[in-house]
Amino acid sequence: MTPTEPHADATTRVLGIETSCDETAAAVVTGGNDVRSSVVSSQVDIHARYGGVVPEIASRAHVDLLTPVIAQALVEAGMADGEVDAVAATNGPGLVGSLLVGVSTAKALALVWGVPFVAVNHLEAHLYATLLEDPSLELPALVLLVSGGHTLLIAMEDHGRYRLLGSTVDDAAGEAFDKVARYLGLGYPGGPAIDRVALDGDPTAIAFPRAMRGDGFDFSFSGLKTSVINHVRKHPEATTADVAASFQEAVVDTLVDKARRAAREMGARSMCLGGGVAANSVLRERFLSACVEDGFHGFLPSRAMCTDNAAMVAAAGWWRLRADGPSPLDTGADPNLRLPLAG
Ligand code: KG4
Ligand code: ZN
Questions:
Q1: Per residue in 275-287, pLDDT tens?
Q2: CB 3.0 to 4.6 Å from 145: which of 61, 87, 152, 225, for a disulfide?
Q3: Which domains does the chain have, with CATH numbers?
């Protein structure tokens, strides 16, 4: 291949592999946005009894599940082994043991099939989950990326060109949902449980604090978690539904308020949501109304595309392959990998 030839085109079929946390996933995406298959095997039931993800158990489960999940993704895409043009895998951030399972498998397959290996940043993959479903999304876009490990406000100026506008100074939004749910006895994972229980509660019942609200674009959620605990201790009569709804309201208020201000300030043309917390029903509703009110093209990925999956890894891998070519085979797993920022 000459240096001027692109490394990926509309016919390039990428097998994506995702094992950064507790979902074992594989997918085939052609040309960066045509999802031919997407298989996700969740380990939620395995970890639920411990109240959270146990890293050692997660890595062992990935070892058991990944080969059948890849096989299923290839069968569903109607492809034989030799028909894959590149293999992309998340190499960070995430749990190191879990990442290693996906990265090593991807490299082995790439070597056996004689195709490029592409290392993918999990955060960049979440950004591509949005573009995958709405390729017409206009850039620059403001992306609110809210997951179990991250709360980021990102200016996506172009493919591969990001500026970080704000992030959490303590707990991630999803982590706050999980911790509060655990305290309220709602089980794991906490986000969907709070979302469900809050449907029967009054979001204005308790005025929980909106930390750092007027203060730049950073977030803080650990004080909110403490306020919930203190409130429940002082008011044992408060219903779980009211506490859950009021907590959720405080989180959503802060996220949407900062996202719309950031979008205005950066001169965004569109606003989109990403990450597991983007599956939250109140956040989705509020985010979309903010876009309509402020005149931004707003986009919400489907719930399946918000939580961890491999289609987003294959899509981000296709863009990385096109821009940078294959990753060296000595690229390792990096549990603390950051989003590659412009400038
Ligand atoms: O992106 P993701 O699947 O994994 C990470 O990369 O962290 O996000 C998982 C997080 C968990 O904290 C989970 O509680 C949260 O997303 N989550 C939700 C909802 N669904 C998942 N949080 C609020 N409301 C939901 N409906
Ligand atoms: Zn994620």
A1: 999 999 999 999 9
A2: 152
A3: 13-127+308-324 (3.30.420.40), 138-305 (3.30.420.40)
CA of residue 311 to ligand 1 center, whole Å: 17
What φ, ψ does residue 171 adopt, rounded to 5°? -75, 150
Residue 86 host element (H or E): strand 86-92
Q: What's the pLDDT tens digit per position in 252-275?
A: 999 999 999 999 999 999 999 999
Query: What is the SS3 assignment for 23-44?
Result: EEEEEEEECCCEEEEEEEEECH
What is d(CA 296, CA 217) in angstroms, rounded to the nearest whole number?
Answer: 19
- Give me the residues near ligand 2 (ion), CB cutoff below 5 Å: 147, 308
Q: Which residues of 272-299 are buried (b: 16+ CB within 10 A; e: fewer)?
A: bbbbbbbbbebbbebbbebbeeeebebb
Q: Is the CB of 189 under 6 A from ligand 1?
A: yes
